[in-house]
Amino acid sequence: MRTRELMLALTADCTITHSRFEADLLADLAPDAAVSVWPLMYPLHGTERGFADRRDVAFLGGYRHTPNVDAVQHFASEMLPALRRAEPSLRFIAAGANPTSELAALASDHIEITGQVADLRDVLDRARVFVCPLRIGAGVKGKIMTALAYGIPVVTTSVGIEGTSIKPGEHVLVADDAAGFVRETLRLYRDPKLWQRLSAAGQELMRAEFSPERGAEFLAAAIDAAWARKLGVRAA
To answer: In CATH, what number does 51-209 get?
Structure first.
């Protein structure tokens, strides 16, 4: 599969990747390939509720994807008990399509397994913190971008922001062990100034780099690069 993918990249007029990480990888593995980065695009929904009107922590994913199932199970067993000892009223909302029977069995008075949600605002505009405790996975994580576009601040692992321009401490909080993840989640859950700063920074990042308008510019550049490659001329 690796050989086939590299061959396709070398023979295509232009190969589109969704992250700089992937483009750099192709530059090393197939330096003669024409590559353009076309980031994923998300409408900026913004937030309709402030810090004080929110409660709980939320996660979003499709559960036919094993890393999402692992993330929910890991959070429920290794992080949620400590969070609830510190904040007894806190609940965990795991939203998304096709929850497995194992996830459905987690449902309780403090864990909500919603299934597919018709309007994400129903979840993302009532939760205070978006948690993304991914331990495995690759590529740009749409769930992180979606949360930022809705103005809900994020606590994630390094896996969650892999291949993006998202900066720890500036756009999101990052921790890779359970104790650190709990600590950062509580810090964000309790600090309205930090919450507001990260909410605003995340929305601005989405506006500047991942909006449909910016996507149109990146796509135009990819098409120009493809035509230049096809015609054997240098792209403008």
So the answer is: 3.40.50.2000
